[in-house]
Amino acid sequence: MRSRTVSQPAMSFEYIMWMFTRISGLALLFLGFIGLVMALIMNARNLLDMPTLTRWTFFPNPNHVVNSNIPDVSQGWANAYWQIMEMVIALFGISHGFNGLRVVIEDFIGNTFWQPMIRGVIFLMWLFFIIIAFYVILAS
């Protein structure tokens, strides 16, 4: 009986982005769970209803809970922990979404001369949305 060799996957751009999509999806679920647990630890169960708590978990911006009956939203919530959580969730979410957009567009255009231009446009859009998201997070 002879042993056969199995080829190893090459470390290409597509393989790295495929891995990133899986890891970022799991990271978003993990970060959402951490945000929910931390919100409950910080006494959110007495201050927020469930829809507001869910919204707060994934993007804890004080402007999102203006219509709730909390006296002062900005105290205790707009701190460095929540800003870092927001930035990490925004980074993973935007990157995950734009990578999916890139894959769908490249499935339609194929491997043509348009591919580098499309990748450049998608990268510039990704950069624009990251800058806007970080500005909104740090300015609120």
List the defining traits of the structure above.
140 residues; single chain; mainly alpha; 3 helical TM bundles of succinate and fumarate reductases
Tell me what the structure shows:
The protein has about 140 residues and is mainly α. The protein contains five helices and no strands. Helix content is about 70%, strand content about 0%. α1 (about 15-40) packs across α3 (about 50-60) and α4 (about 80-110) packs antiparallel against α5 (about 115-140). About 10% of the residues are buried.
Distance between the termini: 68 Å
CATH topology: 3 helical TM bundles of succinate and fumarate reductases
Overall strand count: 0
Domain count: the total is 1
Indicate the low-confidence ranges by residue numbers.
Answer: none
Report the order of strands and helices: HHHHH
Oligomer: single chain
Helix content estimate: 55-70%
Count, helices: 5
Shape: extended
Content-based structural category: mainly alpha
Q: What is the CA-based Rg, rounded?
A: 20 Å
**Main β sheet profile:** none
The CATH architecture can be given as: Up-down Bundle
The percentage of residues in β strands lies in under 5%
Give average pLDDT, whole number. 81
CATH class: Mainly Alpha
Question: How would you summarize the topology of this molecule?
Answer:
Layout: H1 13-41, H2 44-47, H3 50-58, H4 80-109, H5 115-139
Helix pairs in contact: 1-3, 1-4, 4-5
